[in-house]
Amino acid sequence: MKKIKLIKYLAFSFLLVGMWSCDEIFDDAQPSTQISVSDALETEAGVNGVRSSMYAKILGSFDMTTEYMVGPGALADETFNRPGSTRFNALNNSVSTSGTAHISPFGGAYELIQDANLIINSIPDGVLDDATRDQYRGEALALRAWAYHTLVRALGYEPGNFSNGPTSGFNLGVMLRTDATLDLADAEPVARNTVDEVYAQIRADLASAITLLTASSTGAVTSRNGFATMEFAMAMQARVELYAGEWAAASTAAQAAITASGLTLVSDSAAIGTMFAMANPEALFEIKVNASTEAIAGGNTNSGLAAYTSDQWVAQVPTNYVLDLYDPADNRLQGWYNDCIAQQTSGATANGCATINDEGFSVTKWNGYKGNFVDDIPYFRIAELYLIQAEAAAKSGGIAAGVGPLNTLRAARGLGPVAAGDFANITAFEDEILNERTRELVVEGHRFWDLKRLGRDIPSGVSADLKMRSDSFRILAPFGTTLQNVNPLLVENPEYEVSE
Amino acid sequence: MRSSMLKKLLTMLVCAFSLSAGIYAQGVIRGTVTDTDGETVPGASVLIVELNRGDATDADGDYRIENVPSGTYTVTVTFIGYTTFERTVTVSSNQETVLNATLEFDSIGLDELVVSGYAVTTKRELTGSISSVRASEIQNVSLQNAQSILQGRAAGVTISTTSGNPGSAFQVNIRGNGSVNAASEPLYIVDGVQIELGNTSNLTSTTPLNAINPADIESIEVLKDAAASAIYGSQAAAGVVIITTKRGQRGATQVSANVERGIRNLSRNVDYISSDQYVQYMGEAFAINDGVALTEDISFYTQDYFDFFVSFFDAANAPGYDPDNPTLPNTDWQDFIFDEGVTEKYSLSVSGGNESTTYFLSGGFEDTEGTAFNTDFTRVNLRTNIDHRINSKLSTAVTLNVSRSTQFGVCQDGNFINCPPSQAMFEAPMSFPYLADGSYNPETRFGLNNNPAVVRDEVDRSVEVNQVLADASMTYEITNWLNVRGQVAVDYRNTQDEQYRSAIAAPVQNGWITYVNRNIQNVQSRLVFSGRYTFDRIHNVSGLAGTEYKNVYSETYNTRGDNIAGSFFDVLNATATPVSAGGSNTQYIVSSYFTNLKYNYDEKYFLSFTGRYDGHSRFGADVRWAFFPSVSGAWRISEEDFFPDGLFDDLKLRVGYGITGNSAIGNFNSQNLFGLNGTYLGSSAVTPTQLANNNLTWEEAKELNIGLDYELFEGRVFGSIDLYQKDNDELLFGRPLPSDSGFGSITENIGSIRNEGIEFEVNTTNVSTNSFNWNTRFNVAFTRSEILELPDGVDIRPDDRFTSLQIGKQLGVIQVPRWAGVNPADGRPMWYDADGNISYTPGVADRVEYKDGVADAVGGLGNTFSYKGLSLDAFLQFSVGQWAFPGTDYYFTRTPDFLMNLNTEVLDRWRNPGDITYYPRAIEGGNDYPETDNYRTQLGTQAIYNASYIRLKNVSLSYNLPAEFLDGLGVRSVRLYASAINLVTITSWPWYDPEFARGVNDIYGNQIFASYPTEKQVYGGIDISF
Does the distance separating the beta carbons of A115 and B586 come in below 8 Å? Predict the structure, then answer.
């Protein structure tokens, strides 16, 4: 009797056990905010998500937003720390060989490249219709080219400048990764390619992008410029050739991009002041941000462009070097600067701007116009094309050839023309171009790179001392020991600490 | 008393044992077995020694042995937790001989009952390492939750507050840190229900264990070694904490009520300098920078700074400012932010029962104000524990705990400009909260919206937790040596976080409200067979086998609205701009089989085997199921004939080895996944978030434990010594990948850490007379860790000051340059470089290994003195060998770089050539020292402080009113008591509090940033029983 009962209970329990022992019971546990690789790459919705991710990564990355725009000026002489604030003061104080602060877009750029590689190489045929596929691939190629250019200008010398630094003929660029990382084997370390190889890849990508984007480039560029446009790819060709010192090619590409874009420079004084406050009428490509839900890494209050420059911390304010460049009639002076305290809406009162510039101004290009310290971020404006054309045309065809585009820009900003005869030599003209670039492109991410590509010393915005000599090893950013440790093939930039 | 409840558990879990019945008949022995409280004892073993026959008592405590040949016999009655009863009895033919037995509770020591995995056992039978804390040890101590009870009372369990705010969490570390990247909290089990710890509020420090009222706790056991905890398999590597609540007892209804009130203050304050001292400091710095010696008149320089501060802090608008005789405000911000808090607690419990049903009902209410403004904790809880015996074979039990707690979500643990603990350091005395007209001062250090007065009055952060812990079980006695128990349990928790900021506190958004709703649904079921059988009187076999299923579903929803219509609204409906709505969920499932088989020979040699087979949804597809075995044995040396009588009452050697797992590895870490990555232009973005690792598994702990239990001088001294070595292998690490691949790392099982240590526990009865008793309990544990293996054999962050992981070294190593003092000639700070030369700019290469953040020894010492109705208990807890960097204090209150509060240490500064001191000359800002690193940011050994402490953790004095006072009042007992927590702390740590952990999973222990400091608490209360 007892035995029968025992058997009964054992049988009952094994029944329960049997129910529980198959692996299917674990299938209920599925992630809610993640999807499988096949869902992501083999469905239209998934691919749309990967395409959006390229842009979401740009706006979510500190490297590619606030540091991209404000960092190069802070590392040079455009802006300086307001007393009592700390944001980017390491870049401000990165003098000579003290400190190691530099700008490295490494993380942000390669994250973007990863998504671009997926779109370029990993979408099976038939998931998208051909037109959409071409458009997405074109966008991905343009963004990949832009990301590689952003990387290579920080971590390597420009073509032709390989002996600018302490090591003669140092021609290494960055690692080229053109296939997506889908499993562990794809993530193996690779060595740095040469700068020339990187530039070749960038040129090829831009050319392909332009081809692929042609069909979808209908209507005004400003109606399409929330995504990478054909016109942006063309403009990038101009910027890349300018950096490469291919003056004629840069000049030609700039003209082609200006023509293709159909855009004109904003010339109304009030409209200049509000240019950054809305969809930027000069933008060939801009990231359009939802102020309520789309924050950059670290949060807008801490890390937003406006929080750095005109509100909250008001940490990076323009130096006298910048403000002294403007003619009182320059519409940009009225449009893009204001009294620090008057402009501020949040944070501790921004006292002390006057110790950085005589006027006590902050720069208001980034002003949280969309609320919550958020602005749309234009990555290429038509104004830059005129500056590229002016410089490149002058260097390939003489100063007279460069004066035209420069005057076009000056006229739009409320200034009279300059003449070729105003400049004693091409260096004097280059000086003027550099000044005009500062006037026009302040806090848009150019100053340090312009000085670097032209082999200029890096001056200080607040003292007569140099920050870095043009031949200093500090002109290049380091890769850092973290990357060295994980990548035995990596050659560090000259004179930086190398981990054993 | 204490044994009664456990006895019932035993009755349910472990069936009585008996011997086979005889064949032919003559007489009968029968009777009832009761305990000294008069309660019947079911399941006791009755044995006729000469015949080696017997019976087990039934549910009513009755036994009957038939067919006993006439004669004289020795009869013994034994049951776990009681001393053996022995009588000589004569049996005649055809007669019933009645032998009733009264069992006495065994005293303390080795017969103590211990709740181990899925069963109850005696300490004598234990082969693993388990620490226990009983309700009697803590009855006068006003503690917040089960974790605080364990602090200092369980050898080898290191417990630190992660925060001093009422309702906060504790870091509980059982035998060291065994994991770097996976969570390493122990498994908590309340009355058999495994508690889920995840998805708590993120507004402040809190713990799900707040649901249990400490007054309801009967005992807490900590399963420390693998032999004891392997039965919990993949969840046991960080140890297991088993909490058992009080249950009803048969007999008259007992009612007890408790009322308690108390106050709390900061356990210590930090001294900051006044505005005048600040001006003097800055003036000196300015003068030195201007080349003026401090022996000269420097009033020009101090006046300059005075004027600067009047302007910078807008002193002209401060209350009481007189333009003709200008003064600077001198605000004590510490006093503004921290204030005395009041606690009230009430609890009522009713228990009782009859032969078939017993019950314990309790309700409690607590309202505690913290010291920082707005902070509080309230808890209402209701507990129902009912045990019912349906018939002689079948019994059932239902346990229900419903609780609702609220907390102010005080923010902390970082250099946040809007959190009270950091604001106490960030606001200089020259700053002030209100203008002369009573409005908020907009010129505090971080502006109007971060003015501490605004943070206090215009910000609300509330956390509300509703929690249900319930289980129902049924036990069926299959035979008198085997039973089966089925249990279904649910642990449900809803947490609501609400944050409100008025338009003043959030000017950019014109005020906002966020609301986050979190749910945890943790459903479990288990079926356990347990049995116990004795052969030939000396072969005792017992064991259990079972299966278990656990499904934990967790979800979170959040919404936010900006632009609040007016200051009188604080609901989402009143926000004009709906900003965001989000939600996500996650889940894991565990399915398991387990067994524990035990054998002992004559209670002299013990052997135990445990095995658990766990399947887990978190593990990679190729390694879904895991087996965790342990084996252990014990030898009671004192039972051997060769062992001399006298000194030892009992001496037992234990050895155990086992393997446990840590499955806290993230729910989906093994899969190749694309994750949501925000949105762009209205479209959701997805991006690769992790690469697949089909071999991802649990972390594994292999532990060897050798222990000795001893009892001597007739039980006046007893305790244990344990030695262990625990190797945590297969540790999860993000193996770094070149980040140009798009991935920074892949999670793999590739690390190993060893923890080893010694634990020592002793309990003594020093004096025991009729009226006066003095008992002492002491425990200490020494631990050491060593990293054995890391990814690719490469040290992680090898040069990092605080978070390096280096093979061959321990966790929490600190690496800074050595401090060389202040240069007497010019007041500059000096360090040593790697070669031992003075350096003013030491670099990474000059860092030396200096101390670490893991305590070497922790423990507790308790003394109880009782004289008649008066009882005094003093409990000291100590931690030795932890060193740490007080981040916020050091970075912000030691130099005036940010014009924040300045610690009084600056008063000892260098002034004139020849001064020998430890604090350098005054500076205006970090770069004042020529060619010298900033004293604030160039950390050296001077920035690392000893966080060792001895703390009078609890002291309590209680008085039981003599019975004659209570005659005729209908009152059974009245007890008055006073108690205190953290009353005295002895430490060389100069900052807020040396007892801290940055979080429940902080493995380094060597940095602290503006945490809410520990509080000193004093209570008075009264207990009345009817």
Answer: no
Is the confidence at residue B43, as pLDDT, over 90?
A: no
Q: Is A183 on the interface with B (CB under 8 A)?
A: yes
Interface of A with B in 221-250 (CB under 8 A): 226-227
Contacts with B686 from chain A: Cβ below 8 Å = 35, 40, 46, 49-50, 52-53
pLDDT in tens, B409-442: 888 888 888 899 999 999 999 999 999 999 999 9
Report pLDDT for B3: 44
Put simply, whether A479 touches B (Cβ < 8 Å) is no
Cβ contacts of residue A345 below 8 Å, gap of 6+?
A311, A368, B507, B508
**Shortest CA gap B844–chain A (Å):** 11
B residues 847-876 near A, CB within 8 Å? none
Q: Which of A88-92, A232-236, B178-182, B575-579 has the highest mean pLDDT?
A: A232-236
Residue of B nearest to A147 (CA): B740
Q: What 3 state SS string does B628-664 have?
A: EEEEEEEEEHHHCCCCCCCCEEEEEEEEEEEEEEECC
What are B357-375's pLDDT values in tens digits? 999 999 999 999 999 999 9
Amino acid in the structure at residue B662:
N
What's the pLDDT band for A16 if we cut at 50, 70, 90?
A: low
Chain B interface includes A96 (CB < 8 A)? no
pLDDT tens readout for residues B437-474? 999 999 898 889 899 999 999 999 999 999 999 999 99
Q: Supply the pLDDT for residue A67.
A: 96
pLDDT above 50 (res B21) = no
Helix (H, G, I), strand (E, B) or coil at B826: coil
B680–A349: do the CB atoms touch at under 8 Å?
no
Helix pair A382-397, A230-244: axis angle to 10 deg: 40
Helical (H) or strand (E) element with A207: helix A195-213
- Residue B70's pLDDT is what? 85
Selected for mutation to probe chain B from A1, A16, A32 (highest B CB count within 10 Å) is A32
What is the nearest CA distance from A494 to chain B, expressed in angstroms? 19
Q: Which residues are bridge partners to B488 per DSSP?
A: B472, B525
Question: For residue range A298-339, what is the model confidence (pLDDT) as tens digits?
Answer: 688 889 999 999 999 999 999 999 999 999 999 999 999 999
Nearest CA in chain B to A151: B740
pLDDT at B178 > cutoff 90 = no
Distance from CA of A307 to the nearest CA of B (A): 11
- Interatomic CA distance for residues B742 and A494, integer angstroms: 25
Is B613 in contact with B624 (CB distance < 8 Å)?
no
The answer to whether the Cα torsion of A92, A95, A100, A106 is positive or negative is positive
Which of B563, B619, B680, B934 should be substituted to probe chain A, the one whose Cβ sees the most A Cβ atoms within 10 Å? B680
Q: What percent of chain B has pLDDT over 90?
A: 52
Residues 6+ apart with CB under 8 A from A112: A54, A57, A58, A61, A64, A143, A144, A147
A173 contacts on B by Cβ (under 8 Å):
none
Radius of gyration of chain B (CA): 32
- Say if CB B954 and CB B214 are below 8 A apart: no
Mean pLDDT of chain B, nearest integer: 88
Average pLDDT over residues A391-411: 97
From chain A, the residues in CB contact with B687 under 8 A are: 50, 53, 56-57, 111, 114-115
Judged by DSSP in three states, B679 sits in: strand
